[in-house]
Amino acid sequence: MARIGLVAHDDKKDDMCAWAERHRAKLARHQLWGTGTTGSRVKAATGLEIALLKSGPLGGDQQLGAMICEGRLDMLIFFIDPMSAQPHDVDVKALTRLATLYDVPLANNRSTADAVLAHLAN
Ligand SMILES: O=C(CO)COP(=O)(O)O
User: Fold this and answer.
1) Of 16, 74, 98, 118, which has the fewest CB atoms closer than 10 Å, so is most exposed?
2) What is the pLDDT of residue 122?
3) How far is the CA of 12 from the centre of ligand 1 (A)?
4) How many domains does the chain have?
């Protein structure tokens, strides 16, 4: 069972919900964490069990970063909005940096998310 983090910036939350619905059956076999708003939205859209962290700008990205450096997250699906400035850009950079540093599979868009999820055995 993989431990998967789900995060999406505001303009990408619809994409994240649609992606999670499409992969609902597979995601249901893994342990899921989400930043506050993303996690709540995906939970409501899919009925999946998702542990909710703080909202991203309030520390949720940092909580996921801590999970990564403590070896408690196996995969990060993080739909970034490349067209909007984020007030917590430093947190976003810290999270993507830690995923890169610890060699945690990191998907920043739907195609990559499809690929990394397909890579999971079940
Ligand atoms: O801001 C985020 C990621 O940087 C996501 O946080 P929310 O899911 O709480 O909106």
Assistant:
1) 118
2) 74
3) 10
4) 1
